[in-house]
From TrEMBL:
UniProt GO molecular function: heme binding; iron ion binding; monooxygenase activity; oxidoreductase activity, acting on paired donors, with incorporation or reduction of molecular oxygen
Family: Belongs to the cytochrome P450 family.
Keywords, comma-separated and alphabetical: Iron, Metal-binding
Originating species: Malus domestica
Pfam families according to UniProt: p450
Protein name in the entry: Cytochrome P450
Gene3D superfamilies assigned to the protein according to its UniProt record, in alphabetical order: Cytochrome P450
GO BP annotation list: sterol metabolic process
Length: 310
C-alpha cells in the first residue's frame, strides 16, 4: 500500500548523486569557496519545469541524507506555517552525534525542553534583553578598540564570530577572561567544523574532532554553572542582587529560577540549554553581522543614513 501511494506522488526532479556520499563533495567544494549558493542555483536552473518556469523544489542527497530543497518564498512559507502539522523539524544523524556527543540526550523536543524554554524565553525577548544594553555597548566598544581600530584590513566574518561569541559568554556566563574565552572558542570551532564534514568517526578526522570538541565544550560550560551555583549558595542573597532586583548575568538569574512545580533546574540542564544557544548563535549571528557590514560598504548612501541615525 505504501509503494502504491508513493507511485501516485512522484518525487521532485533531481539526483541523489553517488551511492552513500550523494552530492556532498560537490556541495562542500562550493561551500569552502564561500559560495554554496552556486550549488543551489545550478540545480534550480537545471531542473526548470517543462513550461519553462523556475524550479520550486528539487531532490538531492547531502551528508548521507536524502532531502528535498525548496527554492521559493512560497516553499519557506509552507514550511514555517505548517510546523508540527505537515512538517516537523529534525536533525540529520551526524549533527545529532556532534551536538549531543556521548551523552544519552537527544535533540528531540521533549517536555523537559519545553518547560525550560518557557523559563528562558523572557530573557531572550526585547524587554528582557533591554537591561543588557549597557553591557552589550561596553563589550562592543572594547572589541572594536582591540581588534578593529588602526587596522588597514579587517576580516569581518572572522572577527564577527569572535565578537558574537565574546558577547554571548559575557551576557550568559559572565565570562570575560581572554584565556578562558580562547579555550572555549577553540572547542566551538572544532565543533562547528564538523557540520559540513563527511560523517566518518575515526581518530584524526574532522568529524571525530567535532564530537570531542562538543563533549569538552559542554563539560566546560557545566563547570562554570556548578561553580556559579556554589558561589550563589555561599553568598548572601542581597549581595547577588542589584538595585533593580536582577541577579546580573543570565546564568545567575537562571540558577535562581524554578519550574512551576517548584522543582529546581539542574546544573546539567542549564548547561545544556546555554550550550545550545551559544552553538546556534555562533555562525548565524556572525553571518548576519558580516552581511550587514558588506552591504553598508557596497551602498555608501545607506551607510551615511545609518550613521546619521535615519
Amino acid at each position: 500500500m505504501r509503494k502504491e501511494k508513493l507511485d501516485r506522488h512522484p518525487l521532485p526532479p533531481g539526483s541523489t548523486g553517488w551511492p552513500i556520499i550523494g552530492e556532498t563533495l560537490e556541495y562542500l567544494r562550493t561551500a569552502k569557496k564561500g559560495v554554496p549558493e552556486i550549488f543551489m542555483l545550478d540545480r534550480i536552473n537545471r531542473y526548470l519545469s517543462s513550461a519553462g518556469n523556475s524550479c520550486k523544489v528539487f531532490k538531492t542527497s547531502l551528508l548521507l541524507q536524502d532531502m528535498a530543497v525548496l527554492c521559493t518564498a512560497g516553499g519557506n512559507k509552507f514550511l514555517f506555517s505548517n510546523e508540527e502539522k505537515l512538517v516537523k523539524s529534525w536533525w540529520p544523524a551526524h549533527l545529532d552525534k556532534i551536538i549531543v556527543g556521548n551523552s544519552e540526550k537527544t535533540l528531540n523536543i521533549t517536555e523537559e525542553s519545553n518547560r525550560f524554554r518557557m523559563i528562558l524565553a523572557p530573557y531572550l525577548k526585547p524587554a528582557g534583553l533591554q537591561k543588557y544594553v549597557g553591557t552589550m555597548d561596553s563589550v562592543t566598544k572594547k572589541y572594536l578598540v582591540t581588534f578593529w581600530d588602526h587596522k588597514d584590513q579587517v576580516k569581518v566574518h572572522q572577527h564577527a564570530k569572535k565578537y558574537a561569541f565574546t558577547l554571548a559568554c559575557k551576557l550568559m556566563l559572565d565570562v570575560e577572561d581572554p584565556q578562558v574565552l580562547d579555550k572555549l572558542e577553540g572547542l566551538l570551532k572544532d565543533l562547528s567544523s564538523g557540520f559540513t564534514a563527511l560523517p566518518i568517526d575515526l581518530p584524526g578526522t574532522t568529524f571525530n574532532r567535532a564530537i570531542r570538541g562538543s563533549t569538552q565544550l559542554r563539560e566546560e560550560i557545566e563547570k562554570i554553572v556548578v561553580e556559579r551555583r556554589i558561589k550563589l549558595s555561599t553568598a548572601s542573597a542581597n549581595s547577588m542582587v542589584d538595585e533593580d532586583g536582577d541577579h546580573g548575568d543570565m546564568l545567575s538569574s537562571l540558577l535562581m529560577e524554578t519550574y512551576s512545580d517548584g522543582q529546581q533546574i539542574s546544573e546539567s540542564e542549564i548547561a545544556d540549554k546555554l550550550y545550545g544557544v551559544i552553538v546556534a548563535g555562533y555562525d548565524n549571528l556572525s553571518s548576519v553581522l558580516a552581511t550587514i557590514i558588506m552591504y553598508l560598504a557596497e551602498f555608501p548612501q545607506v551607510y551615511d543614513a545609518v550613521l546619521k541615525g535615519n
